[in-house]
Design goal:
Helix content is 22%, strand content 31%. The chain is an alpha+beta fold. The strands form 3 sheets. A 4-stranded mixed beta sheet has the order 1-2-7-8. Strands 5-4-9-10 form a 4-stranded antiparallel beta sheet, with no helix packed on it.
Amino acid sequence: MIDTMGDSMVKNRTVAIFVAICLIVGTVPFALGATSQTSSSTSNTVYISALDVGAPKETANQEYVKITNKGTKAVSMKGWKITDKGAKHTYKFSSSYTLKAKSTVTLYTGKGKNTATKLYWGRVAHVWNNEGDTAYLYNAQGKLVSSKTVKVK
């Protein structure tokens, strides 16, 4: 006579032990077929490294925000955006822009010709408040990954 009850209990115990080991090691999602997402790791390597809010009577290109990629891999900025406090102004990165590894791009408020290290918002009016402001950087999933506040005395 075949002991199906015993086989069933052995299988259940095996599955329970496997799940317990996965929980301890932290690999249950991967054991079940999930894949890791790199957006959070790239989000941690890309940040706002500087914000210059300009001064009265300066041109729009004298105010800027710098975004730095301290990581070892280039990051596609497709879907990423920069906003000011209150989200009154929003800059959306072009779908073709990639921030190279270990590099910084400067986003100027005014007009100019975009390059790998200089981007232009294309505005005539100023974005950043001269008394101080905050720049916010959001990734393609809409998650805030960095902010920089400048207060001018």
